[in-house]
Specification:
The complex is a heterodimer.
Chain A lengths: L4 E3 L2 E5 L4 E6 L4 E9 L5 E8 L4 E4 L2 E6 L4 E6 L8 E9 L7 E2 L3 E6 L1
Parallel strand pairs in A: 2-11
Antiparallel strand pairs in A: 1-3, 3-8, 4-5, 4-9, 6-7, 7-8, 9-10, 9-11
Chain B lengths: L4 E3 L2 E4 L5 E6 L6 E7 L6 E7 L2 E4 L8 E5 L5 E5 L8 E8 L8 E2 L3 E5 L1
Parallel strand pairs in B: 2-11
Antiparallel strand pairs in B: 1-3, 3-8, 4-5, 4-9, 5-6, 7-8, 9-10, 9-11
The chains are: A mainly beta, B mainly beta.
C-alpha cells in the first residue's frame, strides 16, 4: 500500500522565502529519505533520517521526523529559483530488504 | 562508472512491438532497482536485484514485463507487445547493498508507445 504521501501537491513561493513540505506514512519505518527531481528525470538523494532521529540538517535543508504521528517535514530555507523541482519522500519499511516506497511528490516553484 | 547510466534516453515505438531498456549501475553497487513514473505521478516500484537475483518481482505490472541482470552489473528491462499505457519514464537506481540506504538514480528512459 502507498506509504509516503506528500503535502501539498504543489507549492509556489517567492525567492528568499522558506518552503515546507510534509510527508505522512502508514506503517513503521527504518528510515525516511527525501529526494529531488528536476524535469521528470532522475532523482537525487537529499537527506536520510533514521527512525531514532528527530531532526537533521544539511545546508539549507532541515528535516524532521515524528514517528508517533508518522510524519516528516522538509524545510528549505532562503529558497532560490534553482530549488524549483519536485520533492519526494521515500520510506524504508521494517524487514531489511523491502524496497523504498515513494510518494507522489510535491512540485515546488520558486519565483524569482 | 561515475553514475548510473540508462539507454536509450528516449524511445518511441509502435503498439505491439517489444522494447529493451538498459541500465548500467555504479560500479560496485550490488543492488539495482527499476521504477516507472507516469506523467506527474510518483515512482512505481517494478523490480529489484541483489546481485543477479531478483527477490521481489511483485511490482511488475504484467507478464509482458521482464528483467534480468547479468554479471552483477548491467540490467535489461524488456517490455513485450507494448501497449499505450506502458508510456512512461523508466528509472533505474542502484545502491551499495539492498539495505534501504541511499539510492542513486539514472536519468531515465522516456518511452512513448504510439
Amino acid at each position: 500500500s502507498q506509504q509516503g504521501e506528500e503535502d501539498p501537491q504543489a507549492l509556489s513561493i517567492q525567492e528568499g522565502e522558506n518552503a515546507t513540505m510534509n510527508c505522512s506514512y502508514k506503517t513503521s519505518i527504518n528510515n525516511l529519505q527525501w529526494y529531488r527531481q528536476n524535469s521528470g528525470r532522475g532523482l537525487v538523494h537529499l537527506i536520510l533520517i533514521r527512525s531514532n532521529e528527530r531532526e537533521k540538517h544539511s545546508g539549507r535543508l532541515r528535516v524532521t521526523l515524528d514517528t508517533s504521528k508518522k510524519s516528516s517535514s522538509l524545510l528549505i530555507t532562503a529558497s532560490r529559483a534553482a530549488d524549483t523541482a519536485s520533492y519526494f519522500c521515500a520510506t524504508a519499511g521494517l524487514g531489511g530488504n523491502t524496497p523504498l516506497v515513494f510518494g507522489k511528490g510535491t512540485r515546488l516553484s520558486v519565483i524569482a | 562508472g561515475a553514475g548510473v547510466s540508462q539507454s536509450p534516453s528516449n524511445k518511441v515505438t509502435e503498439k505491439g512491438k517489444d522494447v529493451e531498456l538498459r541500465c548500467d549501475p555504479i560500479s560496485g553497487h550490488t543492488a539495482l532497482y527499476w521504477y516507472r513514473q507516469s506523467l506527474g505521478q510518483g515512482l512505481e516500484f517494478l523490480i529489484y536485484f541483489q546481485g543477479n537475483s531478483a527477490p521481489d518481482k511483485s511490482g511488475l505490472p504484467s507478464d509482458r514485463f521482464s528483467a534480468e541482470r547479468t554479471g552483477g552489473s548491467v540490467s535489461t528491462l524488456t517490455i513485450q507487445r507494448t501497449q499505450q499505457e506502458d508510456s512512461a519514464v523508466y528509472l533505474c537506481a542502484s545502491s551499495l547493498q539492498a539495505n534501504q540506504e541511499t539510492q542513486y538514480f539514472g536519468p531515465g528512459t522516456r518511452l512513448l508507445v504510439l
